[in-house]
Design brief:
The protein is α/β, with parallel strands linked by helices and 331 residues long. The chain has a domain of 217 residues: Rossmann fold (3-Layer(aba) Sandwich), CATH 3.40.50. The chain is built from eleven helices and twelve strands. The strands form three sheets. It has a seven-stranded parallel beta sheet with strand order 3-2-1-4-5-6-10, with helices on both faces. Strands 7-9-11 form a three-stranded mixed beta sheet. The chain has a two-stranded parallel sheet with strand order 8-12. β5, α4 and β6 form a beta-alpha-beta unit. The longest helix is centred in the first third of the chain and has 21 residues. The protein is globular and about 55 Å long.
């Protein structure tokens, strides 16, 4: 099988590309001229230049492929120019999928996110059928991914497109070169830079298990169906406690109320917007998201795909060791 992987230079995408290579498949990776290719090193992958906002480049990239794994996404909780995230996540998704269909690609795995799913008010794990509307989407990232998934469903309906949808939870592990907002949190905690926490919870999974879930969904998933690829539900306090134990540090003991952090986040965002320097350490969107327990169940993926996830401690150890080996801990 010859597969095109978008986002292969990034965190989840590189893990998917690695799994495909290990399985003996021929892999092409969509890269931009500005892409950092570190995650593609030591992999037998053909890089092809293109951009999700340039349909002509996508037609060339997907030519001759049997499969498409569309993993790429603009994952930012703070966006100075909101239009950018919608162009990449919504229009870019439509562009690459239509290009793949025109090229005769036989099967497509689209990477959505648990950000598009509903949450249970009592904190119990949500699943693929938990009710949700666009009004429940907080911030541009969640809204863009929600709209992108709706666009994919429309394409499935109109073109009878052979697309399966996966909804990863919160991946952790090696090769988080950016790092992602989650990876940055793990890195900061490992370096002792998180003296306090807020009352929230997430579902964490090893990035390589999430990648294997993509392959399983591609092979066994039902067209048009979504599959949560998750792992362990943890409060932030529990997660930080694990990181403290791994790094032999004291866990944070101070719990900050959400209302105290909102003004700090507003100030941080305003400063970054005015100066044009970096990203805020705290974002308003992130604080609002933290008000809810974002717990999920991967039971459907386990039963229908044979998906499994390793202990979250392994994911944290692998992430911290990768950050250490790649000099992030000294930055």
């Amino acid at each position: 099988m010859k597969a095109l992987v978008t986002g292969a230079t990034g965190f989840v995408g590189s893990a998917v590309a690695k799994k495909l290579c290990e399985a003996g498949h021929e892999v092409k990776a969509l890269v931009r001229p500005s892409s950092v290719l570190k995650n593609l090193e030591k992999m037998d992958i053909e890089p092809v230049t293109g951009d999700l906002t340039d349909p002509a480049s996508l037609s060339k990239a997907v030519k001759g492929c049997d499969a498409l794994f569309h993993v790429a996404a603009d994952y930012r909780l703070w966006v100075p120019i909101p239009e950018e995230i919608y162009m990449a996540n919504v229009q870019g998704t439509e562009n690459i999928i239509l290009a793949a269909l025109d090229a005769g690609v036989e099967r497509i795995c689209y990477t959505s996110s648990v950000a598009t799913l509903g949450l249970n008010t009592d904190g119990t794990p949500a699943d693929e059928e938990t009710p949700v509307t666009q009004d429940d989407m907080i911030g541009h990232y969640k809204r863009s991914k929600f709209l992108a998934e709706e666009r994919v469903r429309k394409i499935i309906s109109e073109h009878q497109a052979p697309i399966v949808i996966v909804n990863p939870s919160t991946p952790v592990g090696p090769r988080d070169i950016r790092p992602t907002p989650t990876g940055r949190m793990v890195l900061d905690a490992a370096m002792g830079k998180m003296p306090a926490y807020v009352d929230t919870g997430l579902n964490f999974a090893h990035v390589d298990d999430v990648a294997q879930g993509h392959i399983l969904a591609f092979e066994k998933g039902k067209t048009g169906k979504r599959y949560i690829l998750g792992g362990t539900n943890l409060t932030l306090k529990e997660l930080l406690g694990m990181i403290a134990e791994i790094t032999d540090r004291r866990p944070p003991l101070v719990k900050l109320p959400h209302n105290l952090i909102i003004p700090i986040a507003w100030t941080a965002e305003t400063w970054c917007r005015l100066t044009g320097k970096g990203e805020p350490l705290a974002t308003v969107e992130g604080v609002k998201l933290a008000r809810k327990l974002m717990f999920f169940s991967s039971e459907r993926a386990r039963e229908e795909l044979g998906y499994s996830s390793r202990p979250v401690e392994d994911a944290l150890r692998d992430a911290i060791e990768w950050f250490r080996q790649n000099d992030y801990m000294n930055a």
